[in-house]
Each structure stands twice: as C-alpha cells, then as structure tokens.
C-alpha cells in the first residue's frame, strides 16, 4: 500500500476545514496535526481574512530596517572602493 503524500498546503487546508466544522475541538486538532494552538489560531485567522492564499508561507524578512545604511551612503562607499581597487590586467 503506497504512502499518502501530504504537502504542507494540503495539511493546512485539511486542518482549517476540520477546524471550521461546528463543534470542532481546535486544541485537539492542533495536537493531531502537530502544531501549537497559537499557530492553529493564526492559520484560522488568516484563512478567514484571505482565504486559501492566507495558508501559504510568508517571508521572514522584515518589511523595514530602521538601522539600514541609507542608499546614498552605500553608493558613495561602493564608488570609493571601486576607485581605490587596483586595475586587473
């Protein structure tokens, strides 16, 4: 008997569909799927606002970085490094 192939998206969709049923025990479903209740409720909230697209992974990169060097300073440093590097022949 072959193994049932389960993708992350299909598992998340199955979790949400079971959790949306009337009388569903969310914490028991979280244990069954091996996720924390915090993650389970987060998936349900995303699904309610965004639909299936909300179940996809999101980038971990921050949207902004307050300590980032300004573009003008980066450009001047790069120009200085290019002008001081020896020419390859």
UniProtKB/TrEMBL annotation:
InterPro entries associated with the record: Homeodomain-like_sf, InsJ-like_HTH
Pfam short name (any one):
HTH_28
Q: What is this protein called?
A: Insertion element IS150 protein InsJ-like helix-turn-helix domain-containing protein
Native organism is Methylovulum psychrotolerans
**Phylogenetic placement of the source organism:** Bacteria, Pseudomonadati, Pseudomonadota, Gammaproteobacteria, Methylococcales
List every stretch annotated Disordered: 52-89
Which residue intervals define the domain Insertion element IS150 protein InsJ-like helix-turn-helix in the entry?
Answer: 13-63
């Amino acid at each position: 008997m072959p193994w049932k192939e389960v993708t992350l998206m299909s598992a998340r969709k199955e979790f949400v569909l079971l959790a949306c049923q009337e009388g569903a025990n969310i914490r028991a479903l979280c244990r069954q799927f091996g996720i924390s209740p915090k993650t389970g409720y987060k998936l349900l909230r995303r699904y309610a606002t965004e639909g299936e697209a909300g179940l996809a992974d999101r980038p971990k990169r921050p949207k902004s970085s307050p300590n980032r060097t300004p573009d003008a300073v980066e450009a001047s440093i790069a120009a200085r490094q290019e002008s001081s590097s020896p020419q390859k022949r």
